[in-house]
Amino acid sequence: MSAQIDYNQLIPNNVNLASDRRLLRALESWHPKFINWWKDYGPDAYQENEVYLRTAVSVDKKGWAHFGSVKMPDYRWGIFLADSNAEEKRIGFGDHKGEKVWTDIPGEYRGPLRRLIVTQGDTEPASVEQQRVLAATAPSLIDMRNLFQVNVEEARHLWAMVYLLMAHFGRDGREEAEQLLERRSGDPDRPRILGAFNEQTPDWLSFYMFTYFTDRDGKYQLASLAESAFDPLARTCQFMLTEEAHHMYVGETGVARIIQKACDVMNKYKTDDVRRHGAIDLPTLQKYVNFHFSVSEDLFGAELSTNAANYFTQGLKGRYQEQFIKDDHSLKDEPYEITTFSNNTLKKEEVPALNSINERLRDDYIKDCQRGINRWNKLIKDAGIDFEITLPHRAFHRQIGSFAKANVSPEGVTMTEEDWIKNSPSWLPSEQDHEYVKSLMIQVTEPGKFASWIAPPRIGINNQAIDFEYVRF
Ligand code: BYC
Ligand code: FE
Ligand code: FE
Hints:
- By secondary structure, the chain is mainly alpha-helical.
- It has helices at residues 7-10, 21-41, 110-130, 141-168, 170-180, 204-225, 231-269, 282-297, 306-314, 357-382, 417-427, 431-440; strands at residues 50-55, 66-71, 335-342, 345-352.
- α3 packs antiparallel against α4 and α3 (110-130) runs parallel beside α5 (170-180).
- It starts with 6 loop residues before the first helix and ends in a 33-residue tail after the last helix.
- The model has no long low-confidence stretch (mean pLDDT 96).
- The structure holds benzoyl coenzyme A and fe (iii) ion (2 copies).
């Protein structure tokens, strides 16, 4: 008998994998393809080094963040659904409000649910592909470890969606699972589904911005799917959200440390020209904010969307924290105020709430983005420096929805396309800005040492010291 992998052992899970032969077989044929993808399109180096990673081995407090040193290809990508009592749980919104949640998929909703799960699943490996070359320029060991932690968890999120596809969509699901490994970020012939996931993440400033702004879209999309009447999807997303928090923490603290360094240099040398001292100036940082925020806003879809209205009415995808919203949760004739663009003018307008589900989620997202910006601004203020980072207007630099046709400045002023293009180098990272940031990207691997452009973090990972050997060489 050939050496058999015990998949129930290999894949930590709380879905009783051992008892489902058909599912096990499907995963057995997908797993080697996943590993090949991980080796070819995951981190392009250090696959044989031991990395201090957390692994989820169960969903409870003790098990979901189990720390240890592992080689990435040996990471145990598990399948976990948050605890649930499907017998008592009720659907919280839409036409099926009040009915029991579904443990399997009603036939008529297979199409839209498959599409939602595939779109979610597609972003996870896409982000790993986007980040694959970053280790070669990591500013410290702890940062390199954080990158790898995010990468293995995004790969686990792929597993989470592949599990749903294989367990609930039969042959179609198995085909979708294959295609999730075949599309490639940025490949013009077989791109990833959503725009932001085909952009490059060429440097660490982009990486922190991505984890701050784009992983936060993940938080809001997952939270909406965690409301789903399809209980396995809801529970999977609920558990993914616990991991998502760390990704956004990496982004927020990463940017904060860059700001700290810029402020320290400004104060030490009494100059705004921090580039002379190998730091990243705040105006450049603002341009990266403008870019990553606007690209991430596009991920919420069009302001008015019948797709989103249908998902809601059918009970497939809810709103952020549905149970805390005080309305009828069916939105048959509720209004919602959105900003619209027509005749070259931005204005506020009341529209049916049901059609503006995407915009409402984007509103929740924007508020959340602003909270971290406020914390960054406090750092700047505490350093005695007169500079404020701001979120650009929601219509600035958009590709999706009604603002795609608009030419709007970060301040929200409409203009001609010609003027917009003329001004854009002062709003978005220019070729020179990219070159400058790239010139700073030099790998630092001595424990406890950091590149010139970033301050050390305040604390280590899991109570380890800052100079702990997070990646062993
Ligand atoms: N790019 O009716 P609309 C994460 C298409 S991030 C390209 O508004 P809908 C993560 C759309 O497909 C979270 N195309 O669309 C973060 C539609 O096409 P059709 C990912 C786009 O369906 C970091 C048309 O435009 N999860 O987890 O309401 C690292 C009309 O649009 C885009 C999800 O996205 C775009 N940006 O809304 C790792 C959740 N936007 O029908 C991971 C699942 C729209 O005309 N996805 N289009 O052919 C969804 O809920 C929805 O698909 C969307 C789009 C909210 C994305
Ligand atoms: Fe994810
Ligand atoms: Fe994430």
